[in-house]
């Protein structure tokens, strides 16, 4: 591994930090390596730009003692690594990741597009995730047709992968599916099954 490659990896640390945090805070499928690198570069550039903007504002309003970032001029110099700039940019990247996660989770872009009639798309996740992630959803009926059971409880947590959905319900009442007869009640229940089975049996 060359010195230039090592320098580029170190420079991309702020972007990688932001991407990791962003990925943890939003609902999404597993990312490809290409998408992770692309987001790291994007978040990294934004972090350094905001750091440069902050320096310019401080020099303009407070003092004129802070120097410009050297990262823009020394990309080809493998021996010069601006560790301080990487460190400060990493702090900015954390803030950026929280703001980006807020925009994504609140569907700000989709809401703006919907307001102007550009798109009616609600987001990238499926209806299962959007429904359970809604603030208006507390108690749900989950119908397990295969086992002839209906669960009624409030959603404490849920997760989803490409092949399976999991949900954790509390204050659960379990009914017979055919005649809605109450069978028993439990404080908490964990359910795991295929996406198709969940999506066809989940009702509010």
Outline the structure in words:
- This protein is an alpha+beta fold.
- It has helices spanning 3-11, 13-25, 33-61, 83-105, 108-115, 127-133, 195-201, and strands at residues 139-144, 149-160, 164-176, 182-194, 202-203.
- It has a five-stranded antiparallel sheet.
- The protein is elongated.
- The N and C termini lie far apart (55 Å).
Measured as a percent range, the helix fraction is 40-55%
Number of DSSP-assigned strands: 5
Which structural class fits the helix and strand makeup? alpha+beta
- Provide the spatial order of strands within the biggest beta sheet: 4-3-2-1-5
- Terminal Cα span: 55 Å
Q: How big is the Rg?
A: 24 Å
In terms of per-residue confidence, which ranges show pLDDT below 50 for 5 or more consecutive residues? none
> Residue-averaged pLDDT, rounded?
84
The biggest beta sheet reads: 5 strands, antiparallel
Note the overall shape. elongated
Total of DSSP H or I helical runs spanning 4+ residues: 7
Strand content: 15-25%
Secondary-structure element series:
HHHHHHEEEEHE
Oligomeric status: single chain
